[in-house]
Design goal:
This protein has 233 residues and is mainly α. The protein has 2 domains: 63 residues, Winged helix-like DNA-binding domain superfamily/Winged helix DNA-binding domain (Arc Repressor Mutant, subunit A, Orthogonal Bundle); 145 residues, Four Helix Bundle (Hemerythrin (Met), subunit A). Helices cover 64% and strands 3% of the residues. It contains 10 helices and 2 strands. A hairpin with a 3-residue loop joins strand 1 and strand 2. The longest helix is centred in the middle third of the chain and has 25 residues.
Length: 233
């Protein structure tokens, strides 16, 4: 196995902060409107209102809607606008199961391609997760754990896939899905144990379990907010 390049700081293994484009910001606002129940299934997305809130033109809003249609959030009808699609629990579960598969693949590659520093850095990040109960701070550390695995995999394809998979919960995930904190701690501790054993198959299996369990917490939040049509739950 080729050792990971040494740096003077563990920051090399943390996710880079990427500035969102106007279209990304518009997509986030629309997702949040759906998540908060301001937009219900079948309702038209108020493009002018979104543009006004963000202080942008309608062009990036239209770009956002095209991306949201690809993700299944809305349907664009010619000359009529974009309309919110109904959500269903099965799609949410599928979404997180796919996350588990992609991260599991990354874990296998990371173990194959990285040295013992991988487990060391993941242990440091896990310790930071254990040391805080603040959901926003916890979310940053949790993201750093997953980004460390992805970076160590050295696979551009994995990063492309993850960028294409939008977050279903807009905003601070662990603040909006507080029950997921305990699940994350338990499941990702198992991922770390597998990494320390250099067991790629076990790490991938634990990632799959982790994402399925977190997906169930997201389903519960969506149900509580009334975001699913009753017949599809």
């Amino acid at each position: 196995m080729r050792p990971m390049a040494r740096t003077s700081s563990s920051r090399a293994y943390e996710p880079r902060l990427v500035r969102r484009s106007s279209g990304d910001e518009a997509a986030l606002v629309i997702r949040r409107m759906i998540f908060d129940g301001e937009l219900r299934p079948g309702e038209r997305v108020p493009q002018d209102d979104v543009a006004a809130v963000l202080g942008i033109s309608r062009i990036p809003v239209r770009e956002a809607l095209i991306a949201l249609e690809r993700e299944g959030w809305v349907t664009i009808e010619m000359h009529r606008g974009a309309f919110v699609n109904a959500l269903d629990a099965r799609s949410v579960r599928d979404h997180y199961e796919l996350f588990g598969l992609v991260y599991g693949f990354a874990a296998r590659k990371a173990i194959d391609r990285a040295g013992p520093e991988l487990a060391e850095h993941l242990g440091d990040v896990m310790a930071a997760c254990e040391a805080t109960d603040d959901p926003v701070e916890f979310g940053r550390h949790a993201s750093a754990f997953q980004a460390t695995v992805v970076n160590a995999a050295e696979s551009p394809k994995v990063k492309v896939l993850l960028r294409a998979m939008s977050a279903l919960v807009p905003g601070e995930f662990f603040a909006l899905v507080p029950d997921a904190v305990g699940v994350w701690r338990r499941r990702f501790a198992a991922v770390l144990r597998a990494v320390r054993r250099s067991d790629g198959d076990a790490a991938a299996a634990e990632f799959a379990k982790a994402m399925r369990a977190i997906g169930e917490k997201v389903v519960a939040v969506f149900e509580e907010r009334g975001l699913f049509e009753p017949a599809n739950v």
